[in-house]
Structures are given as C-alpha cells and as structure tokens.
Amino acid sequence: MDQKIRVIVAKPGLDGHDRGAKVVARAFRDAGFEVIYTGLRQTPEQIVNAALQEDADVVGLSVLSGAHMTLCPRITELMKKERLDDVLVVVGGIIPDQDIPKLKESGVSAVFQPGASTEDIITYIRQNVRKK
Amino acid sequence: MAKDVSDPTKKAVERSESFTTVSGVPVERLYTPEHIRDLNYDEDLGDPGKPPYTRGIYPEMYRSRLWTMRQFSGFGTAADTNARFHYLLNHGQTGLSVAFHLPTLMGYDSDHPMSKGEIGKCGVAIDSLADMETLFRGIPLDEISTSMTTNAPAAILWSMYLAVAEQQGVDWKKLRGTIQNDILKEYIAQKTYIFPPKPSMKLIVDTFEFGAQYVPQWNTISISGYHIREAGSTALQELAFTLYDGIEYIDWSRRAGLDIDDFAPRLSFFFNAHNDLFEEIAKYRAARKVWYKVMTERFHSKNPRSAVLRFHTQTAGCSLTAQQPYNNIVRVAIQALAAVLGGTQSLHTNSLDETLALPTEHAARIALRTQQIIAHETGVTNTVDPFAGSYFLERLTLDMEKGCWEYFDRLDALGGMVAAIEKGFPQREIHDASYKYQKAVERKEKIIVGVNEFVMEDEPPIEILLIDESVAGRQIEQLERLRQTRDNGRVRTTLEDLRRAATANNVNMMPGILECVRAYATLGEICDVLREVYGVYEEPAF
C-alpha cells in the first residue's frame, strides 16, 4: 500500500505545555503515522526547516501561549517560500473562535480547539493529506 | 431492570462494570467499618492542629480565619495589571498573585526575538525594576501578601520586589508572600526552565538562605503539584512527585550546609483541585500526614513548624472545557469546595473562560465570588475537617499515603529526583497517565459534559479578553527609554560583579542580583550573564 504519512509535531512559541502535543504525537504513532516531534520552543525557521529535511506530509503545530496569530502565519509564509504548498498544516491549542478564519486565510487547513479527540484529528489528516 | 425492593439479595444491574476515580483508582460499591480497621485515630489522624496534621494544621481552621482568596492575574503592561490588582482588591480579594508573561518567565526581555507575539499575552510584561514599580503602584507592600509565579528567574523577580519595598520604606522583615521558585516541577511538567539542574538548585538554596536571614516571613518556595497534574498525572502522582521534590530541595540545602529548621518552616506547597471530590480531599489530608512523617522521621526536624505542610490550591485548568463554558463555573465551585474541605491556606478559582483566553473582568469576578459563596453561604467552614471518619474518605486517605511511600522508594532507588528527571521517569509516568485518560475519554469511559456527551451544536460565542499588539509596542518603547536613561556604567559593573559571583560558585547570588536590579539592569541582561556562566538546559529525549 501507500507510504506512511509523515508528520512533524512542533511547538512554536515560549510555552512549555507539551501534554497535548505529546498525546497527539503518540496517537499518531498508534495510528501508523511516522512522527517527528521537534521539542519545545522552536522558531518558525526551525520548524519549516524540519518540515523540509524530514519531507513531511503534515505539520502539526501546538500553541497554548496566545502567540498563534504571530507564529502560525509566519510558519505558513516561510513554507510557501520553500514551496511546501502541498504540506498540510494543522494547529491545536488555546485558539479562540475569532482567530480561526484568519489562520485559515494564512494557509492553516484546520484548527483543533480544546476537547478535540485524537480520532477526529487523525481522520481529518487521512482525508486531507496530499500524499506525494 | 428495576430493583426488587422486596428481596435485598437481588441487586440492580450497575451502570458500569467498574467504577474509578478521575485518576483511574477503583472505587467499591460500599465502604464500611471493615475498610478502616487499620485506622488509628491518634496515629493516623490526630485532632486538627496536632500531629500528624491529617485533619488540618490549625485547631480552629476557618473558624478563626478564612483561607486567603488569591486570584492569579497578570496581562499586558505593568500599568494594565496594576489596574486589575486594584479592581480585585476593591472586590474583597485578600492577597495578590502575579502572572508574568512568558518572555519574563524564560528570562528574555520584551525586545528579544523569541518574545515576538508573546508580549503581555500569558501574563504581565516585566523587564526591569521600573516595571515592577508600576505593577505595585498604590499598593502598600507591608499590608498585602503577594505570590509570584516565577521559577527559573525567581531570584531576580524577588529581588525586584524587595527593591520596590525599599523604595516604599517597608522593612523586609514585614514582607509576606511567596515565590514559586520550584524548578524541579518545571523539568518534570511545565518545562519553563532555563539553566541546568545544578546551578538552578544552587539559586534556589541561595534564596532559602537569604530569606531565612533577611525576609523571614516570606515563603521562598511553593513546591508545586499543580503543573504536574495539569500535565496529565494522576492525583497520587501529583502528590508523590511534589512531596518528593520537597525532599530533594531539603537534601540539596543540607548539603549546602543549611540547618533544616532554619528554612523548612518557609517551605510551602501548591496543589491542584480536580473534579473528583473525595479523591482530592484525601490527597490534601494525606499530604499533611506524609510531610509530617518525612520531616520528623526522615529528616529529624526539631522545630514543630518545619513539619507542618501549608498549601495553596488552584482549581484544575485542564478540567475546564471550551464547549459550553458557563458549565465551568460549576466545575470550579466543586473543585474549590474540595480544596476548602481539604483545609487549604489559600485558593485561586479559575475563570470560566480559562480554556479560551485570559479572564475578562466579569469572569474573574465570578471566580472570586465562587470562593466567597463557599466561605459565607455553605456552612462548610463552621467545623474543622467535616468529612473525617467517612469510611470512604479515610480509606482513600490511607491508600494515598501508601501510594506515596511506594513512589518514594522508587525515586530513592533512582538516586533522587534530579537523577530521576534525567532518566525521564516522572515525565514518562505522567505522559502514560495523560494518554490513558485521553483514551478513556475518547472511549466514553469518562464523560465530560459538553465534550463527549450532552454536546451542543452552534454555541453562541462568549466575550473574551484580547491582548492586542499595541501592548508589545508600548512595552518595547518603555524598555528602549530605560536603556537610554539609566546609568549604563553602573549596569555594566553590577553585571560583571554578578558574573564573577556566578563563576566563583561559592557565594550567595542574592546580594549580587539585588545590585543589578537596583541599577535597572533588565531581567534579560541578568539572565544572559547567568546563561553564559551556567549554560542552558536541554530536555533529554525519552
């Protein structure tokens, strides 16, 4: 069958709340995805670089610090520059409703707010990933 | 099937094959005197105010003085947060608690590239003594107690507070408050660390020593289980890892030559209040008992105050839901009730909009009112430790204690907490528990109202507090002005003195940090010096 879906799970920003990122990363592994977890406090440049190096199909960002409106659009902008247009970007964390349209405009495909189930995230990725 | 009341041997079918606490601990159908046959009143409980303090640390508890209502707050600039402080004090809050923004917690100034997008978002932006002066404008520091949630740069922010007290003409001996200053739980759970364990522990021991001598009413640490629980631990893991962190701080302090009875009375604790009412009450009761035994039996403390566990509680942010957020008021009320029934010394109740943003004034007021309703309307404060003697609660309390000793044995075998952290032990235990819980929620073995059951489509949005980017502009402008107007020669000299002290590694760092702060060196500049000497911590991969 087709290759495994490769996902970068990354935490941009200064907060260290990695419970969500790690639970989601583990659920991805259990679902058969290849997961690369970048660790904490990664700059947009480091994350995009990881996506390039690892030939990722999906970049999953977790932000709980409130800095998502600065960091996520910066990451999608850098990804466009690197011609990573076919990589799916999903975001999770403390993201208020009113920010979601702006994030989507900037190139984020989906936003998962508190309470989202790992099953829903996995299903979304399977249905929307643009496998090379 | 309806229960046949005429035949007592026939039981109704139960709703579930097994019943467990929110932490996954099995709970039996009925608890009877048989379950607490091993309970000895004097040894296991004792009257309130008497060892082992299971029932509370004071004989009268809330009959003499209510807990301190201390709402954690901070956002935007120091001026913004100063206004919120005045608002809360005007509404009957009895203590202050400062939330700093992430750049401050990570030792970066507001104009550092890593601070981009973070300024004033998760707390108040404090770059230097000038900001701290604004933060406490119009608040007499001898009349209020202040808690500051800061860990890696705790010694620096505490020095700023001490410098503000000097300016107000307040004797340090009159200051009351707490710095969190608990780096171990940062490595374990919240991950807001800067330096490696060894120099971090030295800075903490230095604050113990300095506080015991010059600021005797100050709690120089708040050993915290809150963040361990928020990271997904069970109630038992929260308790065991937190108390063992306390053991580790004592070990390091004693190795540095401190006398246990000089600093142990100023150790304070901080626990979470989650949804499972009885499990939480048992946790607080067991905490006091285990700590009493640790201090008297493991460390042979002589001062009775060394063996008394005092704690702050915050309701569980991780239990709140973004869905149907008004339901959170009810969750917070029940969690706060657990903390009060467990004998807390101070309490923060979360706001209903916690999962969406920092609280609005309206949401923060409801949270404070929740405490006031428990204190003044419910009657639970009229008698001390009212649930004592409950077969169920006493069994839970005994089991919680037993579980603690088992974890302590494992941590001893690993060579203590720093060694255990380097091996990833507590981190793995917590991650496994959080994953198990998530799976239980997704299988609907645990119901969360509004999330996996009783779901509503098309909920109306609620008003939330937005921190706009103009805060960042104003903060950076103030910082630039400071760098231009201060005596930069004095800044350089004090920073160089601090570098020498850090390199020598045999002097208390507090006096040197105070000198830098008084010269208006910024938090980032001071942390840069320490980063250069101490290095930075990288989490081990596991």
Summary of the model, kept short:
Chain A is built from five helices and five strands. Chain A is α/β, with parallel strands linked by helices and 132 residues long.
Question: Can you walk me through this structure?
Answer:
- The complex is a heterodimer of chains A (132) and B (542).
- Helix content of chain A is 40%, strand content 18%.
- Chain A is an alpha/beta fold and 132 residues long.
- Chain A has a 5-stranded parallel sheet with strand order 2-1-3-4-5, sandwiched between helices.
- The mean pLDDT of chain A is 94.
- With 542 residues, chain B is α/β, with parallel strands linked by helices.
- Chain B has a single domain (33-442), classed as TIM Barrel, CATH 3.20.20.240.
- In chain B, 51% of the residues are buried.
- The mean pLDDT of chain B is 95.
- Classes of the chains: A alpha/beta (132), B alpha/beta (542).
- At the A-B interface, α1 and α3 of A face α3 and α16 of B.
